[in-house]
Write a structure and sequence with these properties.
483 residues, alpha/beta, Ferritin, two-stranded antiparallel ribbon, 13 strands
């Protein structure tokens, strides 16, 4: 199949669920089913190859050493396909058996979807889904990892488009992911961590970038933590379907129970990439005051906004020698008054390297503007005591509510970061002391004057315009009420 044919075929499963399952829930059924089919088809492929190598020795062909994953005979896709009643129960049992047979690699990977709820998924619907996937063989020779992985990413995007606001939990704009990965420039053998990894796009892209560059990508060590069960499972499936084996994605609450600990301290990483949930209110602030891992290095953030709890967790998880990070945040983290003390202490450490303002709508299903905060524990000598501010808000394309950056726009920002140059109305290199003199306010517009504001009106002109508009609004409202 071509890439387009494969994507159409995979998306066809979603059309079977329309009307019976909410669009936001497609992922918890279709991803596990696709992964299950892939595992079984690859197992059959490996079995046939071993059979050929051994001149028909069935016992040898079944050896675990000949297979990526163990698939018990009564848990195979073919067995489930023969079932006509209580299909959901048979399917759920088969998935559990596969998880139990591969505890180190696949424990919990199929999530917790309610396969046995016949009100949501009657036998007929499940049979149609199974038959749809049975029309093609999803083994490695028919569909290589790269092709299936790209199709899987396509499904993630489509489900995000279809499910509205729920998408932000598991999907980060892939063009922004590409920009962040280019800036971080992960090296073979390094460790990469995402404390709120969603479907694993940021982690995965690091390996794919190295692969694209012809460098060794298989020894890149990928670590992720994700609070949502099905989303963490999707991340793990995403890795496997792209042929990535050396990774560890753990389900859990990063602030309450960080998963990666060494010698009773947070594990240290070379690269951290993240798009944390922003401004969450429901977090355990009380425990953070006396955090056992010492993450409150700058203080304790307010209850109504955990952004700097994540930022401090990231800072504490960096390798002290060459640790660097790129974090996608809303702009508020740069200037909110309630976090000024925390921000000043962060700036005092001189680890902030750049602030890159992005265009609107790159946060999923939101018109708000995002920015990338870039840090480095080992800033080059010429960059110490300085921060690069970039206003790239015009470098975005928006069509039918979808926003993206072109390769040209991505490279423009990336090259500017590499050269650390100043460009009129686009970028500025500012001394950290100057930022501190403004109370630690890192609002990009303080340091980079946009083209639109070069010819500013005087304050009195602006005030007069505002008063005229107010009078116009009052007259309009009075007329409206009269009518």
């Amino acid at each position: 199949m071509t890439q387009q044919e494969l994507e159409k075929y995979l998306w066809g499963a979603a059309t079977i669920l329309r009307g019976t399952i909410d669009a936001g829930d497609y992922k918890q059924y279709i991803f596990p089913l696709l992964f299950y089919k892939r595992i079984c088809d690859v197992y059959d492929e490996e079995f046939e190859r071993a059979l050929e190598e051994s001149d028909g020795d069935m016992e040898y062909a079944a050896f675990d050493e000949n297979h990526h994953f163990k698939v018990p005979e009564d848990a195979h896709w073919k067995t489930v396909r023969q079932t006509t009643t209580n299909v959901g129960q048979t399917l759920q049992s088969a998935m559990h058996q596969i998880e139990q047979s591969n505890p180190e690699m696949l424990a919990g990977i199929f999530g917790d979807a309610s396969w046995t709820n016949k009100d949501r998924l009657p036998d007929e619907t499940l049979t149609n889904l199974i038959e749809h996937y049975s029309t093609e063989v999803l083994n490695s020779s028919n569909i290589p990892d790269d092709q299936l992985g790209n199709a899987y990413e396509y499904l993630i995007k489509e489900f995000a488009d279809d499910s509205g606001h729920t998408a932000a939990e598991f999907y980060t704009n892939r063009t922004v992911v590409k920009l962040m990965t280019k800036i971080m420039d992960p090296k073979p053998g390094e460790s990469v961590y995402d404390p709120t990894c969603g479907s694993g796009g940021l982690l995965l892209n690091c390996a794919l970038q190295l692969k694209e560059e012809g460098k060794e990508y298989r020894n890149l060590k990928l670590y992720g933590q994700e609070i949502n069960l099905i989303t963490s499972a999707i991340a793990r499936m995403n890795m496997f379907l792209h042929g990535i084996q050396d990774f560890k994605v753990v389900r859990g609450d990063t602030l309450a129970r960080p998963a990666f600990i060494e010698n009773d301290e947070l594990k240290k990483f070379n690269v951290i990439l993240a798009n944390p949930p922003y401004s969450i209110k429901n977090w355990d602030r009380e425990s953070f005051v006396n955090d056992p891992y010492g993450r409150n290095i700058w203080g304790t953030p307010p209850q109504g906004c955990a952004d700097y709890a994540f930022q401090q967790h990231i800072h504490k998880s960096l390798n002290s020698q060459n640790g660097r990070y790129a974090i996608l945040w809303p702009h508020g983290i740069l200037f909110r008054e309630m976090e000024s003390d925390l921000r000043i202490k962060m700036l005092d450490e001189d680890s902030v390297e750049a602030v890159i303002g992005l265009g609107p709508s790159l946060f999923y299903n939101s018109p708000m503007e995002a920015m990338i905060l870039i840090g480095n524990n080992n800033k080059p000598k010429e960059r110490r005591g300085k921060i690069l501010f970039v206003n790239a808000k015009e470098d975005v394309n928006i069509d039918k509510g979808q926003a993206w950056m072109t390769d040209k726009q991505i490279n423009k920002v990336y090259e500017l970061y590499k050269t650390f140059d100043e460009q009129q109305s686009y970028s500025s290199v500012v001394d950290v002391d100057e930022v501190l003199s403004k109370g630690g306010n890192m609002n990009i517009s303080f340091y980079v004057e946009s083209l639109k504001t070069n010819n500013r009106e005087s304050f009195s002109d602006t005030l007069n315009s505002w008063e005229d508009a107010s009078t116009h609004l009052e007259n309009s409202m009075n007329q409206l009420f009269k009518n």
